[in-house]
Design goal:
Two copies of one chain form a homodimer. The first copy, chain A, is built from ten helices and no strands. The first copy, chain A, has 205 residues and is mainly alpha-helical. Chain A folds into two domains: 44 residues, Orthogonal Bundle (Arc Repressor Mutant, subunit A), CATH 1.10.10; 138 residues, Orthogonal Bundle (Tetracycline Repressor, domain 2). The longest helix of chain A has 25 residues. Chains A and B meet through helix 8 and helix 10 of A and helix 8 and helix 10 of B.
């Protein structure tokens, strides 16, 4: 499968975890210059100075490396979402802040590095596990906010909880999903405000 | 600008309007086989049997031909929207039907001919006048439904009308805009129902 000579790590080299991090860091750097789509594992190996076989010891495919990078980016957005939710006790305000922060963080990622954003686009269009899990966690955050708001009497309780959470997720989706966000940038400033207000009107008891 | 010999229409040939229609029909046929993006006006002229110069007498550019095709498609969707609205007097029901029919017609257009759909994608991504005018008319329909529902006491009246209409438009946009619809097909069955319900909850007096 692979005929290149493996470059073995130094005898007392870094542990597996460190090597993985090293490959991910070098790959992030490389992808941000040359793009994710156009780069092969061979290109990457050459650029990093590792053999292809050595990289394959740590990652099953280019996508696995992409997933690791994507996971870091999405985790970064999620931490901001969690901080926004923790910053207030009011469920309606949590919803507003969550929406605003999620969009701001996603737009920042887009503006910061278009070439790295390719990875997020691939993750979303090919349904990578990291992207699917992220969507599920965002829906989970929404559902918890709804439960809290219902318990506090801020939100109506007639609509089935999962139906309400799913509909709100669909309203936010164009600004969270990287494929859709690219086509929604012109609304990314105003939409979170306008749509949060619409959502909150729909939740009024 | 153009060195090809012009083929003049026959002395008692069809009027300008007929020639335009003839070019549009032939172009539609050609684009649906070979795609809009890859076809040049020269290709088109060759395929139709007219000179490039003759086509340029009727259309300023390939985009102008694309706009004429796009206009026909969007007008078709709009007629279905108008029929859906006219089919009931209840504003909430008009909203539900408008959403459902608009999505069904857009998905049908997508499934019917992926190559022709390229034209809709170009129209949306490049902001062609036909696409911009269509969006404005959809917003206009929404606003009229809101006015009707407010007058009948079906909808709340506190939210400024244009704000409410714009927010509802943003909720529908992923299923109307061809660029977004391509990425939202997995939701195109359920979303109109779930989102209409959310919108109607947001409008309750």
């Amino acid at each position: 499968m692979n005929t290149e000579t493996e470059i073995q790590p130094a005898a007392r080299g870094p542990g597996d975890h460190e090597v993985r991090d090293q490959i991910v860091a070098a790959a992030t750097e490389h992808f941000s210059h040359y793009g994710y789509e156009k780069t092969t594992v061979s290109d990457l190996a050459r650029a990093i100075g590792f053999s292809k076989a050595y990289i394959y010891k740590f990652f099953a495919s280019k996508q696995s490396i992409g997933e690791a990078i994507c996971h870091t980016c999405l985790r970064g957005i999620e931490l901001q979402i969690e901080a926004a939710i923790a910053s207030t006790d009011s469920a309606p305000e949590q919803l507003r802040r969550m929406f605003r922060v999620a969009v701001e963080a996603s737009v920042a990622l887009f503006n910061q590095d278009r070439k790295l954003y390719e990875i997020a686009v691939a993750a979303a269009s090919e349904g990578w596990p990291t992207a699917v899990a992220y969507e599920a966690r965002v829906r989970g955050h929404l559902q918890k906010i709804l439960e809290r708001g219902r318990a506090a009497g801020d939100f109506e309780r007639k609509t089935p909880l999962d139906e309400a959470a799913q509909a709100i997720y669909l309203v936010m989706r164009p600004y969270l999903n990287p494929l859709l966000l690219r086509q929604s940038l012109q609304y990314s400033e105003d939409a979170p405000v306008q749509l949060s207000s619409l959502i909150l009107r729909s939740l009024s008891p």
